Amino acid sequence: MLSQVPASQVTYLVNSCLRSKDLSQAKRLHAKLISDQCHDEALLSLFIKLYGSCGSIEDARGLFDRLDDPGVSSRNALMLAYVQNGSLAEAEEIFHRMPKRSLASWTTLFVAYAQLGDLSKAQGIFDSMPEKDIAAWNAMIQACIYNEDLHSAKRIFDQAPNPNVVSWTSILQAYAQAGHIESARSVFGRMPYRNVVTWTAMLAAFAQHGQLEDARWIFDTMPEKNIISWNAMIQAYAQNGHLLAAKKAFEEAPAKDDVTWNTMITVFAENGQTEAAKRIFDKMPTHNVVSWNAMITSYAESGHILEVKRMFDTMPVRDFVSWNAMMQVYVVKGDVEQAKRLFEDAPERDLTCWNAMIQVYSQTGHTDQAKMLFDSIPKLSTISCNTMITGYAVGGYPDEAKDIFDSMPQRDVISSTALIAAYSRNGRQIRARGIFDATIEKNVVTWTTLIAGYAHTGHAHESLDAFHDMKINGQDPNPISFMSVLVACSHIGMVSLALHYFIQMVADYGLEPWREHYCTLIDILARSGQASRADDLVKNMPFEPDRVSWGALLGGCSRATNTNYIAALAAQNMLVLAPGDGAPYVLLANYSEESSKL
Q: Which end of the chain is less congested by CB atoms within 10 angstroms, N or C?
């Protein structure tokens, strides 16, 4: 069989399988090309490598055992197969039994240890090598970079007898990834020779650190550009918010690959321009799973539920991202049945999928089902625990949330914040404050959770004090922080203080007030007898008044006097916007009752 197939064709077919990692395809190719009597070491080594890549160590070992006198290439292939499948002890046993080792034998072993995080062991094997070529030096440099040991990477680089362009580029990228952009620039300037990869790496480094002019200078200066360079420039514009420039570079690119097209789809999608993303998607010659996922995510985030479902059902191949994007749609909708059906239909589930299902159970009041699912997760993560703590908070079980918190091997600021929320939203402010004080790392969400907890349970003064403390501690408030202090001011009728915070939000922090901020202020003004000012605010806010805005005005009037005309006007506008809504009649009745008592 083998004699009928050219060697170049065999290599091409095997490499194709290597890229796809399709075990069934590998076995079909094996049956076609290799007879039971075949002992061709070169061919068997190719298939040992292939089976290792496809995750079948048994098939790889079976082919190896056919060889009467395995050579270096077949031993290296089997050693690599064991490494790829997490059997480092077996790989090391093969290494030690080898009568003769090649540079690849040594490199495979020390790279394996580096990937497991044992850089010291990797360094020891590297140092023991009887000889080293530049590929080995570069592999050790990359091993250090992989383990985020920039100092060791630079030391190995300095020791390398003749660093090549790969060596220099690796160090440049390492500096850039570590945030040392000036060191990366210095390496680039000292390089004796550069290739298109080096130029592109420097371009990406500048873009990553917001230095778009330098990135553009690199792009314009490059002696040659390839499709990767164009993609890097498009991504540079996109990362720094220059959407039109990214689109122009996309249109000017002499050639486009999947990355080019997917970058533009993602750029438009992330900027809320779903239709523009769809136009790019429709023009794309062929779609891959990344393209489909970008569109599904875009439609999901813009609320186009039917389009998400249609694309999900249409896409030929789905991965974790596809299933999770679809799952998030049902999480946002709170559709337990559809989420459960999707969860059960998923061929594989990652932690994101499990956590999404716990979330949808929790937020719809199915706390028991959420806990059962939580207990079934194959491997818990911090995110899983945080999701369950939040679920208990929503369900009104703060002590159970505390049990999860106490059992966590690792916690983050979200864990503490979720537990504070669990107690504060259930009215146990003293316990919430105790957890807050014990929390070492606090961010704006942690502070705001405490402030909101006080505000929404009637502890207005404590809420305002916590807001003051947050600013003293150097933490800038966010829109929800200001929303909470406006609610606190509403509870105690502090009109002037509420106006002060509203103005401070815009003038001092540059935050754009939400409709909710205006509605709360409208309610405060109306309740304090300043219905005319509240009415002016409704009519002059930068939003078209909706039923909530008019409801805030009417509700405020129901607790004030001499506001007949404005109350009637607010009720009339509410009825125009929602003709079947009975709330305006109830509020007007309350208003009339309160007025009659005066």
A: C
